[in-house]
Amino acid sequence: MARPRSLRSWVEEKVIQLVKYIYHAKYDDKELKEVIKAMVGDRKLRQTLTNVIIPSFDVKLLQPKVFSTLKASRDDLEDAPLLDVCLSTSAAPLYLPLHIFETKSANGGSREFNMTDGGVAANNPTLLAISEVSKEMGLDIGKASDQCLNSKGSSKLLVLSLGTGSTKRHNNLQVTNSNWGPYEWLLQGLHIGSIPIVDVLMTANDAIADIYLSDLFQATSFKDNYLRIQTDTLTMTEAAMDNSSTDHLENLEKIGNELLTKPVSTVNLATGLLEATHNGAVTNEAALKKFAKRLVDERRRRRQAQRST
Fold first, then answer.
1. N or C: the chain end with fewer CB closer than 10 Å?
2. 201 and 154 co-located in one domain
3. pTM
4. Signal peptide span per the entry (predicted)?
């Protein structure tokens, strides 16, 4: 029969766990590396099948870093292994360790990267994607008017933005006074899995992108060129970042499938909550099918243009 644990051994174990939590990431990235390595092998960024834009953040430089296929094709130091790019953009603070690596060029140059999750800089990377495409097309995307869009060709921008869900409708934080100190900003939401200062910074980052894009397209005759699919009804349990249980993943899949049947929505800029557009008559599924048809038609047009040249 196993002997009962002493109070001392229990306390020692808890102290060790606390020290590890304070000084180390919650998880190591060993298994994640193995999974990604099995998928991408030794391929580099310039070898992606389509142009990609992947945000990360360099904690040493305190500077966002955008890994781009186009940049990688022009600069050896930007042509990082896909394994390093994936680990960089997924290195969520507190959950996974920083990813540190170095790239080298043929002429002997080198560049060091000290990366954490790109979400700290661009939780909604849609603006980065538009900026990258706009530079390639020579567009002035900052001028949101019908005249500019028509004359510059921005009407060809078709933007599909897929959110990963938010808990805005289940925000249970209590604001009882205005004199918030470290406790209110850091600790008062721990019982519901929330750190207020982190939630504020991440949500603000996401919201600014949403506001800008909504204004950009809603102010023109090309409002149907932007489709944002998102839900703001997740509970704190459903939004848990590190729950990979089968039940949890199946529930997220169910939420995603149900989202297809819901109406296309945009953010109410006064409340920050999603509201149905088109009087709720157009579902996300119907909007996606319309997007797909437009993409197929554009591909056919380009192929025909290539044949005629």
1. N
2. yes
3. 0.81
4. none
